[in-house]
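Thread: S-adenosyl-L-homocysteine complex, take 2
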Amino acid sequence: MNLDGRRIRMVMELRRLGVTDPRVLGVMERCPRDEFLAPAWADQAYEERPLPIGYDQTISQPSVVGLMLQALDIKAGQRVLEIGVGSGYQTALLSGLCRAVYGIERIKPLLDLAEERIRKLAIRNAFLRWGDGGLGWPEAAPYDRIIAAAAANDLPGALADQIKTGGVIVLPIRQGDGAQRIWRILRDDSGFKTEEICQAPFVPFLSGAVSGENREWA
Ligand code: SAH
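Output below.
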C-alpha cells in the first residue's frame, strides 16, 4: 500500500480508537507524517506506534496525538502555545486548526529540522523558538490553548500564568506511581479544573535549552 493509502487507513483506525472530531481527523488525513521522520522510519509513519525522531526523543503514536488535539478543542481564530516541537508534526497539525501556533523546542538541531519541514510545507502561521518551554513564551501571551508533548511533574507556573481565562491546557503529567496521564486543564473564573484523558508514555519535560552537541540533551 502506498503512503496515501496508509494515511487513509490510519484515519479509519483513529476513529476506532476514539478520535471523532472531524477537524482533527481532517488535518491528520492531510498531513504527511512520513515527511517528519528520518527516511529509515518513513514507511512506518502511519502505524499506531511511537517512533524515534533522534536525540533520544520520540513522536507519539497517531491516536495519542489525535486524542490530545481533540481534548484541546481548538476554535479557528485561536492562538496556541506548543511545548516540545520535536519533529514539527504536531505543529503542522495545529497550524491547520488555529490562527497561530507558537512552538518551543529545547533541542536546537530538532528545532532546525522542524523549521525546515514547516517551511517546505509552506505553513506560514507557525512561529518557532529554541528555548525552555517551562518558561512559556511571555511576549506572545496570553494563549487560548497550550499543549505539551513531554511529561512534567506538575503544571509549570509560567504556563498557568500564560493561559487565558476560559483557556484549555493539555499536558501529560508524571504521577507518583510512575504512570503518565494526559490531563485537560480548564482555566475559568474560579481557578483550574482538571480532567484525565488517557494514559500514554512520554519523554520527560526537561528544563534548559541545549545545543545538541556532545549528547548534552540526555
Ligand atoms: N510533538 C512532537 C513530539 C516530540 S517529543 C512531535 O510531533 O514530534 C517531545 C519533545 O519535547 C522533545 O523534542 C523534547 O526535546 C521536548 N521538550 C522536553 N522538555 C521541553 C521543554 N522544557 N521545553 C521545550 N521542549 C521540551
